[in-house]
Amino acid sequence: MAAEQGAILVTGGAGYIGSHVAKALATSGRAVVVYDNLSSGHRGAVRWGDLVVGDVRDTERVRDTIRRHRVSAVMHFAALLLVGESVQDPLGYYSNNVDGTLALVRAMVAESVGCFVFSSTAAVFGEPDQTPIDERHATCPINPYGETKLAVERALPHIERAHGIRSVTLRYFNAAGSDPDGDLGEEHHPESHLIPLAIGAALGGDPLRVFGDDYATPDGTCLRDFVHVTDLAQAHLLALRRLEQDGPSATYNLGNGRPFSVRNVIESVERVGGRPVMWQQAPRRSGDPGVLFASSDRIRKELGWSPAFGDLDRIVETAWRWKMAHPHGYRKGTGD
């Protein structure tokens, strides 16, 4: 029997990816409730569905939210995600990313919610043995952030056997771009993602720091797989459909399968914006693999996912357009 289609609880739904997924869900006709502590998310990004302010580690508050909003499935984005910060604060990362997820799942068990879409990361792979990386590649994280995500991935099959919660795990590579309609964009404090940092440098902000120029890549800079945030959102809808149609649990890589270097990104921003990107060389960062890009063949074949934004300039153009229209992001003098 297919799962009842109630509201979807989107934890971390005030953040970058979560807000785009909330919009995609609402556009598809689903009721949405966003659960976020607003530590890094933005009230202004919650435009589809109700907002409940709370910590995912507060199991009773999550249970109450599930009951009041008649939640039938959970999409979980509420996580700390900075590699360098995770090295400095592993306890905080395990508390939020592992303890928080287990507390959330505990609430799902108590309220008989059986569908779970989990936001994971390519960081679970560590330094890849081969590329493109498929789902069979060994998982060997090289930083605490990746370790916390992998810890949850490993727990999910045990939770399913004991409590019947089926899950789809989506391992993102580099989420990028902004909502093509201009409704949502990318704003982090501090900003750590390459494309918005390069755009900021082109618009007169701090010079972009290029970490390492001696990798075994064509131009010496890191190679990454950039997947548009709207394409990620569509993958989440397909994952939810799989679960609601009684499909089995699964894990999928999400990327374009086309690597672009840091210098490729700089050149793209310069083409799109018509302005030079000021940048400066910096040493390699600890925990940065030289090459990281995905094979998304499995999700394409099994769920029919097909990215609409495969071209780097098109991804950059949506990010540039958001920044030009929202120079202060979601903030209107309130800090939100």
Describe the structure.
The protein has 2 domains: 7-175 and 226-254, NAD(P)-binding Rossmann-like Domain (Rossmann fold, 3-Layer(aba) Sandwich); 194-224 and 257-325, UDP-galactose 4-epimerase, domain 1, CATH 3.90.25.10. 38% of the residues lie in helices and 18% in strands. The protein is built from 10 helices and 13 strands. The strands form 3 sheets. It has a 7-stranded parallel beta sheet with strand order 3-2-1-4-5-6-10, sandwiched between helices. Strands 7, 9, 11 and 13 form a 4-stranded mixed beta sheet that branches. Helix 1 crosses helix 7 (229-244), helix 4 (90-110) packs parallel to helix 5 (144-163) and helix 8 (262-273) crosses helix 10 (312-325).
Strand order of the largest sheet: 3-2-1-4-5-6-10
- Assign the CATH topology of the largest domain: Rossmann fold
CATH arch. level architecture of the largest domain: 3-Layer(aba) Sandwich
| Radius of gyration from the alpha-carbon trace, in angstroms | 19 Å
End-to-end CA span: 42 Å
- Taken together, the total number of domains comes to 2
Instruction: State the helicity in percent bands.
Output: 25-40%
Query: Uncertain runs with pLDDT below 50, 5 residues or more?
Result: none
Largest sheet: 7 strands, parallel
> What is the C-level CATH assignment of the largest domain?
Alpha Beta
Shape: globular
What is the H level of CATH, i.e. the homologous superfamily of the largest domain? NAD(P)-binding Rossmann-like Domain
SSE run:
EHEEHEHHEHEEHEEHEEHEEHH
Let me know the number of strands.
13
- Beta-sheet strand percentage? 15-25%
Question: How many helix segments?
Answer: 10
What is the mean pLDDT?
Answer: 93
The SS-based structural class is alpha/beta
